[in-house]
DNA sequence: CTGGTCACCTGGAAGC
DNA sequence: TGCTTCCAGGTGACCA
C-alpha cells in the first residue's frame, strides 16, 4: 500500500502511543525480508526506550538513544499496534513488544525491511542519496526545473526517482501529472519553468489530499485488523483505464513506462 | 553519470 | 472446478 502519505499516516498514528515506551521483547518469526532482519536486533533494542518516530522518504525511523530502527513497508507491508500475544495472521513476521502492546509487521510480499542503523543514521547508504522531501519548502518549481535539466527520461519516471524527489510512487505520480495537466511521457528536460510551477503544487496537493483522506481512517489504519489504507479515496486517473475523465469526460488511457502502469487523460494532459 | 530491464515475493483476478 | 498467466502501491542490481 504505502506511498509517502500512508507511511506518514502510520508514523502519526504510532508516535503518541509508543513515544517514551520501552521495548520489552522482540519476536522475529520470519527474518527473510528484503534484507535479512539483523540477528542481533533484539540485543540492540530490548530494554531501550523509544524516543520518537521520524520519516524520511518512505522510511520510518524509530529513534533510540544509541541507534535507529529503520522500517520500510515495501509494496505490501503494514505496521499495527496489537495487544501483546494477539492471534497471528499469516505473514505477521515481526513483533516489537512494548509491555502490553506490540508493534506488528505484516508483509505478505516481504519487500519490506527492518534494519538497525548506528549514528549518524543519515549516512546509511539507504538514506544518504535521497532527494528532496516533496512536502518541504525545499521542493520548489525552481528546484524542480534545475533538477530536470539534462534528464531525457519521461517526467513521470523522474518524479518517481527517489534521488530527485522522494515519496512519490506510482499512484501519486500519475495523479500529480493529471492535476498539473502534463503528459506523463514528456521528457523531463523539456518541462518549462511555467510547467514546473504547475507540477510542484500539484504534487504537494495530491499528497496532502491523500494525507487528509487517510487521516480520517487513521484509527482503523493503525489499530484494527485488515483495515483499508484509504478512506474512500477517489483517484482522477489511477486504475481508471477506459473510464471517463472526471474533468473533461474524455477517456482515461493507460500505458507502460519502465514496467509500471501509467494512467492519464489525453485531453487534459499535453 | 544516465536510462532501460530485471529480480525479489505472494496472492488475487482474469483467462481458458 | 482447476490450471495458467498477468498484475500489484518499491527499489536495488545489473547492463549498455
Summary keywords:
N-terminal domain of MutM-like DNA repair proteins, elongated, alpha+beta, 270 residues, 4-stranded antiparallel β-sheet, Helicase, Ruva Protein, domain 3, 2 domains, DNA-binding
How much of the sequence lies in strands comes to 15-25%
Please tell me the overall pLDDT.
93
- Secondary-structure element order, N to C: HEHEEEEEEEHHHHHHEE
State the major sheet: 4 strands, antiparallel
> What class, by secondary structure content?
alpha+beta
Judging by the overall fold, what is the CATH architecture of the largest domain?
A: Alpha-Beta Barrel
User: What would you give as the CATH superfamily of the largest domain?
Assistant: MutM-like, N-terminal
Indicate the radius of gyration in whole angstroms.
20 Å
Strand order of the largest sheet: 1-6-7-5
The number of distinct β-strands equals 10
Instruction: Kindly report how far apart the N and C termini lie.
Output: 29 Å
Q: Could you give the topology of this structure?
A:
Blueprint lengths: L3 H15 L6 E4 L12 H5 L4 E7 L2 E6 L2 E6 L5 E6 L8 E7 L2 E6 L6 E5 L7 H4 L12 H8 L6 H5 L10 H11 L12 H23 L2 H6 L29 E5 L2 E5 L6
Antiparallel strand pairs: 1-6, 2-3, 3-4, 4-8, 5-7, 6-7, 9-10
The chain binds a DNA duplex (16 and 16 nucleotides) through helix 6.
